[in-house]
Design a protein that fits this description.
The structure holds 4 protein chains of 4 kinds. Chain A is of the alpha/beta class. Helix content of chain A is about 25%, strand content about 25%. Chain D is α/β, with parallel strands linked by helices. Chain D has helices spanning about 5-10, 35-45, 65-75; strands spanning about 25-30, 50-55, 80. The longest helix of chain D has 10 residues, at about 35-45. Chain D is flat. Classes of the chains: A alpha/beta, B alpha/beta, C alpha/beta, D alpha/beta.
């Protein structure tokens, strides 16, 4: 960093945007001792991902994945969320920005609102729901979605009867917490931050512009995001797939791809990158919901370029019967009276076909927000011609203004994992920028010493919440209190209007002290959101936080049994009794900490490894790079230019220079890892050259190799070369002659069993070289024989450019590959031209093979050494394909670069920065806290049968020096799979011990006859 | 390790249904490790039997217990009084344990709750494979460490029979041909030529075929002999 | 008639049966059998051919039986379960019936360790009682063990053996009952020397009603020498030789004569026991003496039926 | 002999159910997914019989056979394991 930045940097960061990318960046930064201010335009955080039903390939519920993250952001001591907020001005320089923020009035006081929703029930005004994409209604006082964080309601002034007509005020009456404030004027605040991260997210293309598809005119034409809501179990149709027009279950469902994308005349010229996959996912999920559905996807180019995407599409075809039709839809018309839709398209042979569908989904593309240029101006950054933030291929998350970074779809269209990855990447960049200011603005909570409970009998206090009327209108709260107050162990029971309100917290602390309580049960809402709050409160009162249990009588009782007061009350009593039964057996749990060695080990000295190393070193940590070859640089040494024209070798030289001269980086070349041991924060590695290194994290950046083809006479003719060899020729000054014919064949060694995956780089390589050839000599003839051109995102420009300057693109099918024969010095190539529908015979001077990537052969042994799994193609498998794209299940180990999957240079750099961000979170801590909810292992009972050792997803059981099974609680996540399988019952999970579970069961069935 | 497998529930039920006080008695060594007969399985089985009794409308008191090992008398001592309060013991130990307890328990029947299967290894969680037959005369040094007696369905000694099928045994595609494995391994070890030597007929008397076996350590044999002399 | 064999006719006809035993050679000569057959032909009703007795390899019982059959003698094929699994057993039975053999005596066989191949594997796929049951099923149901049909008749007269003296003897009676239940038509017992004990045993047999269900032939071994007497007393399981007999042999001037005398005395007593329907003479390596004994015991002529 | 596997399924004969009887069901739910789903059901006001009660587990992998058997022995009518 040679820019001049002010000497005193701020230890805080502004994150503009509360989607998944912003949340990831915020959490990584806040977890690594930076204060984060999150600014969000909406009334709550979540962004686009919260609207999605499920995510591929696992079919995980999107909300289930993001919801814990939202809660984590919402509760984080060092993340301040500013909602309904917009930045109005930015002054200053990297390390010290002054930011003015305007906050719109909410009309509901966040400190008073408990989120109970009583106001919403009473509000008489119904408004079309933005979140549900107009498919259902919300109220004028509302929260964006049920799981919203925070779930403080907001008044929609434009629709509120009071604001419009001056009367109503029903919400004010309904609110027992007195949170409604019609006089709210909003405010303006000023913040000083060291860096700014922009992640404002995206808009979707407005398909109404394309009138021929009939959106807005034909009711059964929906956008893909509407279809997500239709699929969602919490959506307008509760997950039942119905037609908006008549509620009938559709059978024939069509997806039309590229609506608003790849169309420089009528819409957006770029490829939106995600639509091929989300359409495939929607088709699969739709089939899973209703096996009668016959999905058809009309597409131009199947761009399943990501990790394991091709396999997913293959599954869609073979296992789910999804029909993929390569055809352009010219128009959608409604069949009068039926609501059915007639699609007209051209078949392969050019004939026009009309086909009827029950429902049509438009795969609308992504685009920047309408005001993105204005937005950019506010921050003083530049945008590109498409209104996305301008960035640089080799600095993918930096904007044109130093200290301001971009992540997510404001950078270009991208999917969830890449957004998350970039979120961590910007965090990494910011950590490198502000490393020295870490911890200067964060706060930590101070607690009184814990009471010693030795020898005490349980003294349980029970607090039953009314939650306004949420619980009390269905459950007789007083009766619950009455029934449980004399149970064994219970010394105090009371009810409260809102257990979670500030005054209730104070009351709880007082009761704990005055009644000398040693266990607390609160009966209110779900522990998933509220347990930490109460735990903190009792901790404040001097109790160990694990002496608490939360009985969920709202989500799991009153809300489900409305109108059945007697039964609901009975059930509530049981739920509370179960919690009390467990509480009697609760014990204070120690939360240990382990020291962290603030150093990293990076395995692989390619561009990924070097980028991670530099970022971590700039953050202030020592880094060891282990490279098995003599030189750094890896595969990048063979690459000369990027698609955009950057000089790669120059970049690489500079990067190597930076690495070698960095005071905190040590490179061990010509060396490999011989032995490894330890756990997060405390690894020890022995290298083949005898060096022993202690470090806190490991980054696996073992890279990939290029496929060496055996096809198409590669080893038999000098005229058959790879793209890399062609690039080398071009760089070394060779120029094509006029009329010289170059034929490029794509997907050589990719997208076919046993390598059923896209290598991602080859289309771009081919286009890059084709354009260079044409630029050197426009009279050179270039044919690219391809299966699908995958110039995803903004790279579509180069595809268009190649076509414009006369590169011929000829598609082939995998079962009818081009046939090559050697004819003297030339190569005869026969292939079918589907456009002209006839055989094409080419007479090439050069045959250029676009060969794909393979994982490095060492990936296997490295994987075994670190016990990380690999996908069927041999690439490392990350902890979670969506939300943990650079992590492994075992903590403290990260992945970056080609070892993870094929990717382009800018993506490799992003991922490497992300790994640095994630690793920085671990390394920035002096001590790692170990949760109290871990499995406890009793060595005296254990018979070392290894069952736990084999099933643990986190490798926490291990074989110790005595050759017996032991347990590392630092690695343990407390899932309890070990306890479930252990034949000796040597494992018990704290707070979920067998005796506690059995006690709950007994409490749940106390009234039933006992079989014995 | 001895690998066992719990008997079908119906078979077990038939064994116990006419008793009043049943003890399901687990053994916390081999059969616990293979999830067939440890204390945990005893608890599970006891619960299932109680429910079955309840469904059948018969009164049977089913309790469970477990000790470290059923093949050494000292482990029984602390629990024996308790064990004798039942009128039937369903042992989840291997056959050794059932025999051993039967000899010591007096007039209380001991029934087997598991089938003792074989001496096995645990290549993966939940998978158990037979690798040794306990023949009493090991020849693994001649066969690349892979036992043809335990792992060849015919216990052949001189190479694969005609039923070998691409590395699999004729009895099942799921069973490896032991001789195929042996030959592959011998090849790797560079001792394949040993295969061409005819292996002599085996002395089966060292194994079960020679009648039940007993091993007495040399020094113990002497002590025993002295004891006997004293006795007589 | 179940098989129509001479032995069956004799027993079912209520005659006191006499059977003798022929040990096949450790060689290939049919003459050895033919000679013994010729010698004993008119002195007994059927002749047992042993099956690798004491686990010593000899000519097969089946071939010995065929040789006797060709001489017009009714053979009793002995079959042990030590050397054959159920496949071989059933196959041999089919062959035996095809060759005219009608009597089969089912035994476990001496353990292989006692013979001349002590290191061999014992088969013991099924046991002797299961063998009896198998043969009965083959004969009466015309079914193999697996349940499949046998083509043609399987006329068999099924025998089993019993050792009355292996203590505790009450179990021996239970076991006999098991054999009878399994389908034994006749029983040949281990050699009897301790007649008093045998009488007791027979009482128990009668108490169970077994004597009415099966023909019991008592075993008789003529003792050739005092050494033989001692050897049997000490080493042969299931044989009980009273001290008195050993003493008599020791004191005898001509041992062989004393042995014959003892045999005759025993036979005399056996004939008087209720439920004994014949004797089975096992003159191990002393076949020549059988005619003498049968004649002096007054059991001649043998009935021709 | 009848193979025991064939018989094992015939555990319980269906019995007559008296009117008004509602099964007492215990759900064992993974904290991360099924328990969250139970919460969502509440948020969406989906109704189900009040005799269903949920026991939260850190993961359904934690569930032990004996938990379910114990519940049945104590008289629950159904156990619902979701994770």
């Amino acid at each position: 960093m040679n820019e001049k930045i002010s000497s005193i940097k701020k230890g805080s960061v502004l994150v503009v945007g509360g989607g998944i990318g912003g949340m990831q960046a915020a959490l990584d930064l806040a977890d690594s001792e930076f204060k984060v201010h999150m600014v969000q335009k909406d009334p709550s955080i979540g962004g686009t991902m919260v609207m999605l039903d499920k995510t591929f390939p696992t079919g995980d519920c999107s909300m289930c994945m993001i919801s814990p993250k939202m809660v984590e952001v919402g509760r984080h001591l060092n993340i301040d969320i500013h909602l309904l907020a917009e930045v109005v001005s930015v002054e200053g320089e990297p390390g010290d920005f002054k930011v003015k923020i305007k906050i719109a009035p909410r009309y509901v006081a966040p400190d008073k609102c408990t989120g109970c929703g009583d106001c919403e029930t009473k509000c008489p005004k119904k408004v079309s729901s933005e979140f549900e994409q107009g498919l259902s209604v919300r109220k004028a006082i509302y929260s964006l979605f049920p799981q919203a964080v925070p779930n403080t309601r907001v008044i929609d002034k434009d629709n509120c009867l009071y604001f419009k007509k001056g009367r109503c005020r029903l919400c004010e009456k309904a609110c027992k917490a007195g949170a409604i404030n019609y006089k709210d004027k909003g405010k303006e605040i000023e913040l000083h931050v060291g860096a700014i991260i922009l992640c404002p997210g995206l808009d979707r293309y407005d398909a109404k512009v394309r009138g021929e598809f009939g959106l807005g005119r034909w009711k059964n034409v929906v956008t893909a995001i509407q279809f997500e809501r239709i699929l969602s179990a919490s959506g307008p149709y509760k997950g039942e797939i119905k037609r908006p027009i008549d509620g009938r279950h559709p059978k024939r469902v069509a997806w039309i791809q590229c609506v608003g994308s790849r169309d420089s005349h009528n819409a957006n010229p770029w490829c939106s990158s995600v639509c091929c996959m989300y359409a495939t996912k929607q088709a699969i999920i739709a089939r899973e919901h209703d096996s009668e559905i016959e999905p058809t996807i009309f597409f131009m180019e199947m761009r399943s370029f990501g990790k394991d995407f091709d396999k997913y599409v293959e599954r869609a075809k073979t296992e789910y019967g999804v029909r993929y039709k390569r055809a352009m839809i010219s128009a959608v018309r409604e069949e009068p009276g039926t609501g059915d839709l007639l699609l007209r398209y051209a078949a392969e042979d050019g004939k026009l076909i009309d086909e009827i569908f029950d429902l049509v989904v438009l795969s609308v593309g992504l685009e920047p927000h309408k005001d993105s240029v204005e937005f950019a101006k506010t921050f003083g950054i530049e945008t590109n011609s498409y209104r996305f933030a301008k960035t640089f291929p080799l600095k993918p998350v930096q904007t044109t203004r130093k200290g301001i970074y971009v992540t997510g779809t404001y950078h270009g269209p991208k999917d969830i994992p890449e957004t998350v990855m970039q979120g961590s990447a910007v965090a990494g960049e910011v950590m490198a920028l502000l490393g020295e200011a870490r911890g200067t603005e964060t706060v930590a909570k101070e607690f009184p010493p814990e009471k010693d409970l030795t020898g005490e009998e349980p003294r349980i206090g029970v607090l039953v919440c009314h939650c306004g009327t949420n619980i009390a209108s269905t459950v007789e709260v007083e009766k619950v209190v009455e029934t449980v107050k004399d149970l064994p162990g219970v010394v105090y029971a009371t009810n409260t209007l809102y257990a979670c309100s500030q005054d209730s917290q104070e009351m709880l602390k007082k009761i704990v002290r005055e009644m000398n309580l040693n266990r607390v049960v609160v009966a209110s809402c779900t522990p998933r959101t509220h347990e930490p709050l109460f735990q903190e409160t009792i901790r404040d009162a001097g109790l160990n936080k694990y002496l608490f249990d939360l009985a969920d009588i709202r989500e799991q009782c009153s809300w489900c049994h409305m109108g059945h007061k007697e039964e609901a009350t009975k059930k509530a009593i049981k739920i509370v009794k179960m919690a009390i039964a467990k509480a009697r057996l609760l014990e204070p749990l120690k939360t240990d900490t382990v020291e962290v060695t603030p150093a990293a080990m990076v395995i692989g000295g390619g561009i990924a490894g070097m980028t991670t190393a530099l970022s971590l070193a700039d953050q202030g940590f020592h880094v060891s790079i282990v490279e098995r070859e003599k030189e750094l640089g890896g595969l990048l040494r063979n690459l000369y230019r990027t698609l955009e024209g950057n000089d790669v070798q120059e970049f690489l030289k500079a990067r190597i220079e930076q690495v070698l001269s960095h005071e905190r980086i040590r490179v061990y070349s010509d060396a490999e890892v011989k032995k490894t041991g330890g756990f997060v924060g405390n690894f020890e590695t022995t290298l083949t050259n005898g060096n022993v290194i202690k470090h806190g994290v490991i980054v696996l950046a073992t890279g990939g190799v290029e496929y060496q083809p055996t096809e198409y006479f590669y080893n038999e003719s000098d005229r058959v070369i790879t793209q890399r060899e062609l690039e080398e020729k071009l760089v070394s000054g060779e120029n094509p002659r006029s009329g010289e014919q170059y034929v490029m064949i794509q997907c050589v060694g990719s997208r076919e069993e046993p390598n059923q995956y896209c290598s991602r780089i080859c289309c771009l390589d081919a286009i890059k070289n084709a354009v260079t050839l044409k630029e050197k000599n426009p009279k050179a003839q270039i044919f690219i024989l391809y299966r699908d051109i995958r110039t995803y995102g903004l790279r579509e420009d180069y595809y268009r450019k190649a076509r414009d300057i006369g590169v011929f693109f000829v598609r082939y099918e995998v079962d009818k590959k081009p046939v090559v024969e050697k004819i003297g010095d030339k190569l005869g190539i026969k292939t079918r031209d589907y456009m002209l529908n006839k055989e094409l015979i080419l007479n090439a001077d050069w045959l250029v093979l676009s060969t794909g990537l393979r994982p490095h052969p060492k990936t296997e042994t490295v994987g075994e050494m670190y016990k990380v799994t690999r996908n069927p193609d041999g690439y490392f498998l990350e902890a979670h394909v969506k939300l943990r794209p650079v992590d492994f299940p075992g903590e403290g180990i990260f992945v970056a670069g080609l070892a993870h999957a094929p990717k382009n240079l800018d993506e490799t750099i992003s991922q490497a920065l992300a790994a640095a961000g994630r690793a920085g979170v671990v390394l920035s801590k002096e001590n790692l806290a170990v949760s109290g909810i871990v499995a406890k292992h009793r060595k005296d009972l254990c018979m070392s049968c290894l069952s736990c050792f084999r099933v643990c997803p986190f490798d926490s059981p291990y074989i110790d020096e005595e050759g017996k099974v032991a347990h590392n609680e630092i690695k343990c996540h407390g899932c309890g799979i070990c306890a479930g399988i252990c034949p000796a019952k040597a494992f018990q999970v704290n707070s979920f011990r067998d005796d506690q579970i059995l006690a709950m069961i007994d409490a749940a069935v106390e009234c039933e006859p006992v079989i014995k | 390790m001895i690998i066992g497998k719990q008997k079908p529930f119906e078979e077990i039920w038939d064994m116990i249904k006419n008793f009043k006080k049943v003890l399901v008695f687990g053994c916390n060594t081999c059969v616990a490790i293979c999830h067939a007969g440890g204390g945990k399985e005893a608890e599970i089985l006891a619960s299932m039997l109680r429910m079955r009794a309840s469904l059948e409308g018969v009164e049977i008191e089913v309790k469970h217990a477990a000790i470290e090992r059923h093949c050494e008398p000292e482990f029984f001592e602390p629990v024996m009084d308790n064990v004798r309060t039942s009128d039937m013991v369903l042992s989840l130990a291997c056959g050794v344990g059932v025999n051993f307890l039967s000899e010591r328990i007096g007039n209380i029947p001991v029934y087997p709750g598991i089938n003792t299967e074989f001496y096995g290894a645990v290549p993966k969680a939940g998978i158990f494979t037979e690798l040794c037959a306990g023949c009493g005369d090991c020849i693994l040094h001649l066969t690349g460490g892979i036992c043809p007696i335990a792992r060849c369905a015919k216990s052949l000694m001189n190479g694969p029979c005609g039923g070998t099928n691409n590395g699999k045994c004729e009895i099942s595609q799921d069973v490896d041909c032991a001789w195929y494995l042996i030959l592959e391994r011998m090849k790797k070890l560079g001792i394949l030529e040993k295969m061409f030597e005819i292996q002599p007929l085996r002395d089966w008397s060292t194994g079960m075929y020679g009648g039940p076996r007993r091993i007495i350590l040399d020094h113990i044999e002497e002590v025993e002999a002295q004891e006997e002399r004293k006795g007589s | 008639m179940k098989s129509g064999s001479n032995l069956e006719k004799v027993l079912e006809g209520g005659y006191f049966a006499v059977t003798a035993e022929v040990g096949p050679p450790k060689g290939t000569s049919a003459k050895v059998i033919q000679r013994k057959g010729e010698l004993l032909k008119t002195y007994c009703d059927a002749m047992n051919v042993t099956d690798n007795q004491t686990a010593i390899v000899r000519m097969s019982s089946l071939s010995g039986c065929v040789i006797l059959k060709e001489m017009g003698i009714d053979p009793v094929m002995q079959m042990v379960v030590r050397d054959r699994n159920r496949i071989a057993i059933q196959s041999d039975i089919l062959g035996a019936v095809a060759l005219g053999i009608r009597n089969v005596l089912c035994l476990s066989g001496d353990h292989q360790r006692f013979g001349n191949h002590p290191t061999t594997k014992g088969v013991y796929d099924i046991d002797s009682i299961q063998l009896v049951q198998t043969l009965k099923n083959m004969r009466d149901e015309k079914k193999f063990i697996c349940g499949e049909e046998i083509s043609g008749e399987v006329p068999l007269y099924i025998g089993a053996v019993e050792t009355p003296f292996a203590d505790p003897i009450e179990y021996r009676v239970k076991r006999l009952a098991k054999k009878v239940n399994a389908g034994a038509d006749f029983i040949q017992t281990q050699a009897i020397f301790d007649v008093a004990k045998f009488i007791k045993w027979m009482e128990m047999v009668r108490d169970e009603g077994l004597d009415k269900q099966v023909h019991i032939l008592a075993g008789v071994i003529p003792i050739k020498s005092v050494g033989m007497a001692r050897y049997m007393k000490d080493n042969v399981s299931g044989i009980s030789v009273p001290d008195e007999i050993v003493t008599r042999m020791e004191e005898a001037k001509v041992a062989k004569e004393e042995g014959v005398k003892i045999a005759l005395e025993i036979i005399e007593q056996l004939e008087d026991i209720d439920g004994i329907h014949g004797i089975h003479i096992m003159a191990v390596a002393w076949e020549d003496i059988v005619p003498v004994i049968v004649e002096r015991a007054g059991l001649l002529p043998r009935p021709i039926l | 002999m009848v193979k025991a596997e064939e018989k094992v399924l015939s555990v319980e004969e269906p019995r007559e159910i008296s009117s008004g009887w509602e099964p007492n069901i215990l759900a064992f739910a993974c904290h991360y997914c099924a328990f969250a789903a139970a919460d969502l059901a509440g948020v969406m006001r989906l109704s189900y019989p009040p005799t269903v009660k949920v026991i939260r587990l850190p993961c359904t992998g934690k569930l032990d056979y004996i938990h379910i058997l114990h519940a049945f022995e104590r008289g629950v009518d159904g156990a619902f394991v979701a994770g």
